[in-house]
Design a protein that fits this description.
CATH superfamily of the largest domain: Probable inorganic polyphosphate/atp-NAD kinase, domain 2
Largest sheet: 6 strands, antiparallel
Order of helices and strands: EHEHEHEEEEEEEHEEEEEEEH
CATH class of the largest domain: Mainly Beta
Shape: elongated
Strand order of the largest sheet: 6-5-16-13-8-9
CATH architecture of the largest domain: Sandwich
Helix content: 10-25%
Oligomer: single chain
Strand content: 35-45%
Number of strands: 17
Structural class: alpha+beta
Number of domains: 2
Length: 258
């Protein structure tokens, strides 16, 4: 008989998630994260991102089965307290590769952060941002005048990227979305779809007068001067989904949402 993997239960601080955790703790034993072989996460998409980033920081990647007790729950399964063992055993595994954002501020500070959904550049003041955009060391837009711009993974393409009118990317597409946010010049540029091997770089033009911040998922670096974004294949995250709620199917169906 094969022993069940040791499981850690990670819970959002919301009342709904805490109440659900009480029910699960009554049904089985759980271990601390450092001893676990897999994770069950209770909360919403924001909490799931926190859990995944915690793993990236620890450089110890475990499979995660999330159950939605938040609002949208795009990265989560449906909350049900019963038959959890059977659901995990029959779950479908999806590998998600994060982005690596490398930024240099106007003061010369260098910051490197991972991003699972997207890296976004945003103007800090009423002044529009002016950005030089390069792909694979080639300048493709000498001056993009906009509120901002973002680079999204397939897993993140239905989040901020979709709200900015960016394309939805199927999970196995090996593509990245480069999407402007309220572009003014060039007026008709609506973004690009790039291969995941692309190296995308931005240079902030007139960075003191027109300051720009860079956000990797939920972590912000202010007053940036240059930013590079690329896929980080050194770490691959592992998400578990019920077959009927698989992430790739949900991404496809978002294209038909009205």
């Amino acid at each position: 008989m094969i022993a069940e993997p040791k499981r850690a239960l990670l819970v959002s601080p919301t009342d709904a998630a805490q109440d659900a955790a009480v029910k699960l703790r009554e049904r089985r034993d759980w271990v601390e994260l450092d001893q676990a072989e897999m994770v069950v996460a209770l909360g919403g998409d924001g909490f799931m991102l926190q859990v995944l980033h915690q793993m990236l920081e620890r450089r110890r990647i475990l499979p995660v089965f999330g159950m939605n007790l938040g609002t949208v729950g795009f990265l989560m399964n449906e909350w049900r307290e019963k038959r959890l063992d059977e659901r995990i055993e029959g779950a479908k595994l999806f590998n998600v590769t994060p982005l690596k954002m490398e930024a240099t501020t106007i003061d010369g500070e260098q910051v490197t952060l991972p991003a699972i959904n997207e890296v976004s550049l945003l103007r800090e003041t009423r002044q529009t941002a002016k950005l030089e955009v390069s792909v694979n060391d080639r300048i493709v837009i000498p001056e993009l005048v906009c509120d901002g711009v973002l680079v999204a993974t397939p897993a993140g393409s239905t989040a901020y990227n979709l709200s900015a009118q960016g394309p939805i990317l199927p999970l196995g597409s090996a593509m990245l979305a480069l999407t402007p946010i309220s572009p003014f010049r060039p007026r008709r540029w609506r973004g690009a779809i790039l291969t995941e091997s692309a190296r995308i770089a931005f240079r902030v033009l007139d960075a003191v007068k027109r300051p720009v911040s860079c956000v990797a998922d939920q972590r912000e670096v202010r007053d940036v001067a240059t930013i590079s974004v690329s896929i980080d294949k050194s770490q691959t995250l592992k998400l578990l989904f019920d077959p009927e709620h698989a992430l790739d199917d949900r991404i496809v169906m978002e294209q038909f949402a009205t």
